[in-house]
Amino acid sequence: MPFTKLISSKRLCRYVCRHMARKATPLREKRKAFETSPLMIGVFRKGMPHFYQRLKHLYISSHIHTVMLFTWTDYKTIFLPITSFASATAPVHSLSNLMQGCIWIWFHLILCNVSNQARAKEEDAVNRPWRPIPSGRITVRQAVVLRWFLVIFCATWSATYGAGTVMATLGLVTVTVLYDEAGFSNGPFTKNLCNVGGYTAFEVGATRIMGTAATSLPSAAT
């Protein structure tokens, strides 16, 4: 091999080695950061079952956070007032009844908010970009599927408390459809009418669940 070709080959090898070293440095840093992360430390110390458990917790907490964002602005305006009024009207029979009533209110609040926010994507993108749909945590199609799943779930759950609670759920669903699909939200009178109907449905359902007996609660609510 000629001497000049040998020199050029050595230069080429040095160039390739330096180039590969520069490319490898970020990869080594990323690998080191990944291996020293809390998730991987748990894997090294406790094995793969811990790794899958951490992934499961992260997955579940992400979905819970998404659901909480749907209702974040309505705790002071809907959840707490309805809970307070229903507790005073029922009256509350037990702590268990109170907790069941609060959960019932929350799930029905999710139902209404998912329906409303699925049709207000452009408005929320400007005013509340942190909400699940404009922030990209959930798509409009997924929100629609979630909305109708919640309708079935809430109606089935309300059936365990009696026909009156089912009627409260169906009344709330009807008001939501009129507000979002029928365009009642566009007029001030129809919008206020839907708001009154929604609050009434929330109040009746929560009062029936928190009270002493499902059969005696309609008279107590009035």
From TrEMBL:
GO molecular function terms attached to this record: transferase activity, transferring alkyl or aryl (other than methyl) groups
Protein name per UniProt: Uncharacterized protein
Membrane-spanning residues: 148-179
Location(s), subcellular: Membrane
GO-annotated cellular components: membrane
Keywords recorded for this protein, A-Z: Membrane, Transmembrane, Transmembrane helix
Superkingdom classification of source: Eukaryota
Protein's UniProt keywords contain Transmembrane helix: yes
Membrane topology field: Multi-pass membrane protein
The keyword Transmembrane appears for this protein: yes
Record-linked Pfam families: UbiA
CDD domains attached to this UniProt entry: PT_UbiA_3 (cd13965)
Entries under InterPro entries matching the protein: Prenyltransferase_related, UbiA_prenyltransferase, UbiA_sf
